[in-house]
């Protein structure tokens, strides 16, 4: 037993960075001294709580308190200054980011409408920031830190109402709100000036009163709102210190024997989502199709290759959807006559993440190819506004019966998949690099939430799909403008489906079969920073 413990201790010590070789070398914290600035990017999730309504918001069948979840992306930057004492680091940091977090809650009925019909409380977090004190402890090249401070957010709120002759106007208002933030993270120095970090922050805004002005009735209704947000943040910082001192703590040996790159992509994606509802297979009852789901997208990516051939890679990104449309079809004999309605998709967003672990079994000078196993996550939030009948059904007829600004339906889709694939790259010249990968998805699971906002009797409905599969393809062509920096283009194709699925209507004992499919095409420009060799 003692011998085994000794062997384990020796093995573990070989992975640790050696201590400074002389008293003259700088303490680890000296690396973090001074001014710095950088960019951040990540995933946000939050919750908005509505309570204590007044005015028209309390006029008919209010459903308060009400709450709505939010998911989205954010991106921004930070600046700060650190001072060091021994291995301790303290400083002040200011950060800010734009975001695309939307949320909707069932919050009541409307004048002139059946009980419980028509009101959806909508929140939109457009930007947030904070000024925080940071304190941390430096261990080798790593800085473990915590933060706390004052926070600010810019938010917009609205209540789309369903009232005859209301013409689609709605109570709405915006507010700059103040709150607090706490967080923690780890930052790691890659080189004397550059570092990367991972961070979690919790923001709280409220409670507070906000006034929503209704131009139709000409009054202001007040409601109490409390909002909390959690950020999962990745960041890149540049420190404006001089060239010395050099980093006295070397990288872990396993990290000193790697090559790779990290960077960002910016582009446009387009795609689709479709779901079918069956009464008794194969009798099709209803089909909802969201087409031309185009979005402006931004993402961060990274790949690290060890000299042994093992590699890890992945990306994290998403964006805001442009306007598109949704088609809702209902079929005989359940719906007579056949119905086909059109709605406009607005205020949607998508998010995707991939993480892979692989081994380059074949490699040579300037090229490599290997297999990998990984995980893929894809989420999309879709919102349909207005409803116009284009067939002969009385549903949503006449076409101006439901205002164009009325939210009628939302769909939130979640796809979780296992990836098996091949990835490779080759230097076509000393400056041009081609990379490609293909992944088969042998297991794909779908989870969805359907919100029929004008149907409180069936809102919300959960949806499940399994026994799915899919395909994900990607290729990029890069040009090295310097030995470390490259620019290029990237293309992507995804196809996901779950032919076996189900849902159960509220207050029903019957399970109904469903199937789901989603697709994505993307084109990006990218910039990357390469470390180690190529």
From TrEMBL:
<comment type="similarity">
    <text>Belongs to the Omp25/RopB family.</text>
</comment>
<feature type="signal peptide">
    <location>
        <begin position="1"/>
        <end position="23"/>
    </location>
</feature>
<dbReference type="InterPro" id="IPR053724">
    <property type="entry name" value="OMP_A26_sf"/>
</dbReference>
<dbReference type="InterPro" id="IPR051692">
    <property type="entry name" value="OMP-like"/>
</dbReference>
<keyword id="KW-0998">Cell outer membrane</keyword>
<keyword id="KW-0732">Signal</keyword>
<feature type="domain" description="Outer membrane protein beta-barrel">
    <location>
        <begin position="22"/>
        <end position="240"/>
    </location>
</feature>
<keyword id="KW-0472">Membrane</keyword>
<dbReference type="GO" id="GO:0004190">
    <property type="term" value="F:aspartic-type endopeptidase activity"/>
</dbReference>
<dbReference type="Pfam" id="PF13505">
    <property type="entry name" value="OMP_b-brl"/>
</dbReference>
<dbReference type="InterPro" id="IPR020080">
    <property type="entry name" value="OM_adhesin/peptidase_omptin"/>
</dbReference>
<protein>
    <recommendedName>
        <fullName>Outer membrane protein beta-barrel domain-containing protein</fullName>
    </recommendedName>
</protein>
<dbReference type="InterPro" id="IPR027385">
    <property type="entry name" value="Beta-barrel_OMP"/>
</dbReference>
<dbReference type="GO" id="GO:0009279">
    <property type="term" value="C:cell outer membrane"/>
</dbReference>
<dbReference type="InterPro" id="IPR011250">
    <property type="entry name" value="OMP/PagP_B-barrel"/>
</dbReference>
């Amino acid at each position: 037993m003692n011998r085994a413990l000794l062997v384990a201790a020796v093995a573990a010590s070989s992975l640790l960075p050696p201590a400074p070789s002389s008293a003259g070398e700088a303490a680890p914290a000296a690396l973090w001294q001074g001014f710095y600035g950088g960019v951040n990017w990540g995933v946000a999730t939050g919750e908005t709580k509505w309570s204590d309504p007044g005015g028209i918001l309390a006029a008919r069948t209010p459903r308060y308190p009400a709450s709505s979840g939010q998911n989205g992306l954010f991106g921004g930057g930070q600046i700060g200054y650190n001072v060091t004492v021994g291995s301790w680091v303290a400083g002040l940091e200011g950060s800010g980011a734009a975001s695309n977090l939307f949320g909707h809650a069932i919050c009541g009925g409307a004048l002139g409408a059946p009980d419980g019909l028509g009101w959806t409380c909508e929140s939109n977090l457009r930007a947030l920031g904070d000024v925080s004190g940071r304190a941390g402890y430096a261990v080798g090249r790593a800085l473990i830190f915590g933060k706390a401070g004052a926070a600010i957010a810019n938010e917009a709120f609205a209540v789309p109402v369903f009232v005859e002759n209301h013409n689609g106007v709605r109570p709405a208002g915006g507010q700059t709100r103040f709150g607090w933030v706490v967080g923690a993270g780890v930052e790691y120095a890659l080189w004397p000036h550059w570092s990367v970090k991972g961070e979690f922050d919790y923001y709280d805004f409220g409670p507070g009163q906000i006034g929503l002005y209704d131009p139709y009735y000409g009054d202001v209704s007040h409601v109490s709102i409390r909002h909390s947000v959690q950020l999962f943040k990745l960041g890149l910082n540049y420190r404006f210190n001089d060239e010395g001192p050099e980093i006295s703590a070397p990288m872990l040996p396993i990290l000193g024997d790697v090559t790779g790159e990290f960077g960002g992509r910016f582009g446009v994606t387009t795609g689709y989502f479709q779901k079918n509802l069956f009464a008794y297979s194969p009798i099709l009852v209803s089909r909802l199709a969201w087409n031309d789901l185009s979005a402006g997208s931004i993402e961060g990516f990274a790949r690290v290759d060890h000299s042994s051939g093992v590699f890890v890679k992945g990306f994290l990104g998403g964006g805001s959807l442009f306007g598109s449309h949704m088609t809702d079809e209902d079929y005989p004999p359940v719906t007579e006559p056949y119905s086909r309605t059109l709605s406009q998709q607005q205020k949607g967003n998508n998010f995707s993440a991939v993480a892979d672990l692989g081994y380059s079994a074949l490699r040579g000078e300037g090229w490599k190819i290997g297999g990998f196993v990984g995980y893929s996550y894809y989420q999309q939030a879709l919102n349909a506004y207005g409803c116009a009948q284009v067939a002969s059904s009385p549903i949503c007829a006449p076409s101006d019966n439901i205002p164009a600004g009325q939210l009628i339906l939302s769909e939130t889709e979640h796809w979780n998949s296992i990836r098996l694939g091949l990835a490779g790259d080759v230097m076509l010249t000393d400056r041009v690099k081609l990379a490609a990968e293909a992944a088969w998805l042998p297991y794909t699971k779908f989870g969805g939430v359907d919100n029929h906002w004008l149907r409180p009797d069936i809102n919300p409905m959960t949806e499940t799909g399994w026994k799915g599969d899919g395909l994900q393809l990607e290729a990029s062509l890069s040009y090295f403008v310097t030995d470390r920096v490259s620019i290029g283009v990237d293309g992507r194709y995804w196809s996901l489906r779950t032919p076996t699925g189900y849902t159960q209507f509220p207050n029903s004992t019957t399970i109904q079969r469903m199937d789901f499919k989603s697709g994505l095409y993307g084109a990006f420009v990218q910039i990357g920073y390469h470390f180690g060799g190529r």
